[in-house]
Amino acid sequence: MKSRKALLVALAATLSISLVSPIFAEAPRAQDQAPPPDQAQTPPLPQQVPPPEQQPEASQAPPQQAPPAPQAPPPPMYAPAQLQQMVSPIALYPDPLLAQIFAAATYPDQIPDAAQWADEHHYLTGQALADAIQQDQLSWDPSVQALLPFPSVLRMMASDMPWTSALGNAFLAQQQDVMNAVQRDRAEAAQYGYLSSNSQVIVSGGPYITIMPVNPAFVVVPYYNPAVVFVAPAPGFFVGGAIRFGFGISVGVAFRPWGWGVVGYNRFDWGAHRVFVNNAVWGRTWVNRGAYVHPYPGVRRYTAAQRVPDQHALHPETDRERQAAREGHPVHEEHHEEHHDDHK
């Protein structure tokens, strides 16, 4: 009886093992089983992850600095003696013409083209010249256009562009010093007896010396040698002939939009160191030179793209005409009759 019971227990144990073994044999290892496609990968163990780089918190991030703005070049600076020498070729010009020259010199890049145009149209005068300036839709600044009736002045400026550029820069950056230099030159010329009133200009006394045309509609361009009129004359030298006022230009009502023909429209306030151009204080400086626009209400401004082909005959000055103007003598227009023949 006991042996039969032991046999039954052994059979039951054997059957239990045979039923459970296939289940454990078919169960895959958790680490070998691939995750379902929609399940994220199990991250590695913490000790297997490389230490992340330390990123500063947003509040701790250094503020971003804007790139520095490019520094504008500093203005050239000239000593008083340099300025006095610089202005000496024009210091004895009448105040209205001198003011316009200073203003135009601040646009040196426009001077050569303007000088050529003035030379080729020198035979035009008065209203005909004023109309031609507007009809050609010239893009130069009105301060440069204001010198178109003066071909000899523009030719002088265009023939020495380093001097013209330096003059314009000095006027932009050192206007007060430039005006003081003019007064020193005038004082020397007056002291030595070279500068005095005549039939064309009125020279005032101190404390500031002004040179004004007798007729505001007729502006003379004096001729003189700076090496002579700003030094003491040699014994027996005739000082009265050192400055010639024989060459002048008529700038009447037709040129009023550019500041000509009216008393006081182009002038200096020497005591306050101010310059008036077209009856408004000239405010162009080294700092604002890129944006400043001087008021010329009567002058229409054009861009270079709006320039139209020249509608007039082109007649450059002859050598004799240029020499007469350069030496301060009256100029006989040699193309006047030819110009009228072209339009018969």
Strand order of the largest sheet: 5-6-7
**Average pLDDT metric:** 82
State the helicity in percent bands.
25-40%
Structural classification: mainly alpha
Describe the global form: globular
The largest β sheet comes out as:
3 strands, antiparallel
Strand proportion, as a percent range, falls in 5-15%
Terminus-to-terminus distance: 160 Å
The helix/strand order is HHHHHHHHHEEEHEEEEHH
How many strand segments?
7
Notes on the structure:
Helices cover 37% and strands 6% of the residues. With 344 residues, it is mainly alpha-helical. The protein has one domain. β6 and β7 (280-281) form a beta hairpin. The longest helix has 25 residues, at 2-26. Residues 7-51 and 337-344 have low confidence and may be disordered.
Question: What are the key terms here?
Answer:
mainly alpha, 344 residues, disordered C terminus, globular
Give me the secondary-structure topology.
Blueprint lengths: L1 H25 L53 H8 L7 H11 L5 H10 L5 H10 L6 H4 L5 H9 L1 H13 L1 H17 L9 E3 L7 E3 L4 E3 L5 H4 L18 E3 L16 E3 L4 E4 L2 E2 L37 H8 L9 H7 L2
